[in-house]
Amino acid sequence: MAAPMADEATEIVLATARLARLELAPERAAELAPQFAAILAAFGRLAELAEGEAPEPRADLVRDVTREDVPRPGLGREAFLAAAPERAEAHLRVPRAVGRDA
Amino acid sequence: MTALPDALALRQRLAAGEASVEATLARTLQRCAAREGDVGAFAALWPERALERARELDRARAAGEPCGPLFGVPVALKSNLCVAGEVAHCGSRVLEGWRAPYSAGAVERLLAAGAVLLGATHMDEFGFGSSGENSAFGVPRNPWDGARTCGGSSSGSAAAVAAGLVPLALGSDTGGSVRQPAALCGVAGLKPTYGRVSRYGLVAFGSSLDCVSPLARSVRDLELALSVLSGADGRDATCLELPPSEPPAAAAPARLDGLRFGVAEAQLAALEGDARARFDAACAALEALGAERRTVELDLAEHALAIYYVVATAEASSNLARFDGVRYGPRRAGDGSLQGMVAATRGELFGAEAVRRILLGTYVLESGYRDAWYGTAQRARERLRAQFARAFGEVDVLVSATTPGPAFRLGERADPLAMYRSDVLTVPASLAGLPALSLPGGFVERDGRALPLGLQLSAPAREDARVLRVARALEAARPEFARPSPVALAEASA
Amino acid sequence: MSWEAVIGLEVHAQLATRSKLFCACEVRFGAPPNTLVCPVCTAQPGALPVANREAFELAVVAALALECEVAPECRFDRKHYVYCDLPKGFQITQYERPYCSGGGLTLASGKRVRLVRIHLEEDAGKTAHEGPYSLVDLNRAGVPLIESVTEPDLASAAEAQEYLAALKEILQYTGASGCDMEKGELRCDVNVSVRRPGEALRTKVEIKNLNSFKGVGLAIEHEIARQTALYEAGGTVAQETRLFDPERGVTELMRGKEDAEDYRYFPDPDLPPHTLAPEWVERLRSRQGELPAARRARYVRTLGLSPYDAGVLTAERSVADFFEATARLSRRPKEAANWITNELLRGLNDPAVEAGSIDELPFRAHDLAEVIALVEEGRIDSNGARALIAALFTRPGRPRDLVRELGLELVRDASRLEQWCRAALEGQEAVVADVRAGKTKAVGALIGRVKKAADGMAVDAREVQAMLLRLIEELE
Predict the structure, then answer these.
(1) pLDDT (tens digit, 9 = 90+) per residue, C52-89?
(2) Which CATH number fits domain B7-254+464-492: 1.20.1250.20, 3.40.1380.10, 3.90.1300.10, 3.40.50.1820?
(3) Residue C228 and residue B374: Cα distance in Å, rounded?
(4) CATH code at C460?
(5) CA-to-CA distance for C24 and C18, rounded, in angstroms?
(6) How far is A58 from chain C (nearest CA, A)?
(7) Cα distance from A7 to chain B (closest Cα, Å)?
């Protein structure tokens, strides 16, 4: 769980940005990299806690919250699509998608 | 402290018909507009909506209808709370121009109580920040010293209350985002027990940490606000099934005999020299009321910042995945493909701190790292909760300073890590879901000006009433710990 | 050189709830696009999920029918990926702690197909492609699904189809899912690999986008052939995801899936854990109802139906329910079976008939029972019954009333029958002569003339025949 070296950091920043769908110019990634590395190094102290026993589950934890299966009217099409950056009458419109990732 | 009436006093006057809601509101709107230049608290003001509402309330009262607990009280809302038909851009370009299609549970409760919604206040983008400087639309200036920040992320809400523009504002507190600006602006702020107030309609940052939180000039106003805001909501599965909390008691407790309060020595080390002295004076004030000071061990608190940032950024990166330019907000074309459009939209429109946090959060959740980072942080969080529970076995409330020092200058904390450290004293209570309150706790001087400091009180989960009671006692016993900001004084005499 | 196929199925079945899994939007196939939406399922900023209790109940009922072990508690996880019809940028599913595990079902051949697990998850919206754009409809976003994953126990396309049919039958019978593939209520991904008998498992390939039984069979057969050919040519099979093209009947590599996505699973902080208490689970066992195999056996054993008829009647629960109600009301199970298998099910297949299923017919079991009673009473014969049922498909009404209206009632008035018979006998000396000569069957030719004389009124053919024979005798 060591934090990355400053030079690997740029690669990691770019890879993470791809995963997070954040388009980052390489210069910006290079700028962010040392900050990223420094933050991870600071948080690296968490490693000291890695050996602890897992604590008992709390008795007061909220659980079992459900709702009844009763349909209710929602937003309606106009209220929903009014905010769409691009629409085609009844649908949202986006650039043609290739394939689902999952 | 109040030269201007607090929310409760204002409500009583309006409900008694001593002044009209409309006239009062018109003056409030004037004040807010006039202060946009120097304080700059508001991202949007809603004068037509507010005035129409004010007239409705006056009509209803004249017709003999009962007046709700916040009748006629103008309330400012942090711009991450949804109000149907109004902007809620969360300080981000990714939501520029977007209008919420529905209202938050907390907002519905304010309206049911007779409040008047005034407008949306500036904030650090999505809650990412402790100064207000991470906003795409405006950085509020501290009413005590315009060269200093208000703290954050509920910067505008704190500024609006501290400047005497509104008696009550809502913010959100994830790691200190209401307590810290309250302290730095010299007002009171309450982060309720996690789950006491519905999060439905609060744009999510850290789902397991976010709390809708009120700011006001008096502690009894915080009590009033909590009694209106709290209660179950079937649209939020993390909202507790607790009855709404009680309205404020008429009088503050005169004494705190038998109360044991705990101080974690490790946390004192974080304080700047004169801040430490003010803190000791506040503790002495509690003792003078009959409370007993004890030392407690909270050794995990030193890891709290790391635990917090791992958990909060992980949850934030996930909550922000919905901002993709598909269904709302602006869109950028990128390379013309769907994935390219999403990446270009997000890459261009998110601010620097948002990008940093999304990257961090994505990283700590990646398979391979997830257990080492996120898993460890969550386990450590549970152990911290257990430590708090043990500490509360020996004391009734915990007391600390809210921040290491007073408000800092604009631009002073450019290093992200330095900014994160502003939260070191507020983050532990967030992680443990405890109710925590900051009230004015004295003054220090910087650059020839008096700057306020905050005192933080916290209690076991669900003991919001206890923390409010102790705060009221201290507030009543030591009025000199608080005073109106220079701006508020000017507003009061205007 | 023989190769054997190793196949596993991942089946998504839509739970038969009225509202979505995490919000109160209605679930309804065929609604106009983007009309069944709300802040939650469109991922508006600030919206939060709350789980549908009925979805849990149906999911557990399905698990019990499939002999799974229900976990004492379960949680929801977030699975992150980016697509235009996944509004939150993550799907709420169950990764680490699904609500049940294990279980399986036995095919008619006796082959046991084991399940790994079943979990709950929400569906995504629907995307259609049009030129340079994709169009998104979020009506389906948030619909509750159970995903069941089998061990790779299936050995052929036919077996896979058999498994799918058996799974569908159980889910339908328990009421957990309607399983209508045409409405997208049942979807299937397949994992296929081949190997020589006795070998360790080789690389498997995932095939997606299968939404018909036929498609499942074709895709598997094509893929087995493709992989076998590759190996025999000395090549290797790459681990990849392929899409089935139903038009061309082939699988092809799915574009855009080059990098494996990191789903960054973690427990959804907006959804507290769920306890699945054993007593509650046991109470749900009663919701399961009688499973199809048991029902078939009962029809054969106590109602005297043939195994074939029992099979036809239990192919869908709605048909079986209709049959049992009719049998109970008419007390004539064999007749009820006959009319349903011959007339009702055939009528449903007629494109002119609007109703898509037996439940959508404009008449009910008590109406069919009345038809059977009318035949019992001798008021109509089987031709009349057939005509009556055909009429009931398009004209709702009480059978007794329609009989009168359509003139289906058998005329029993002896004097009128005699009148028609006499009319039919005129000019038929040749037939009369044949009958007198001992060829009584010849009289059959005259029955048509009697019917014509009756001019649309119904006559009992046996009675007519008896009367004709008597009259012919009297003519002596």
Answers:
(1) 999 999 999 999 999 999 999 999 999 999 999 999 99
(2) 3.90.1300.10
(3) 44
(4) 1.10.10
(5) 9
(6) 12
(7) 17
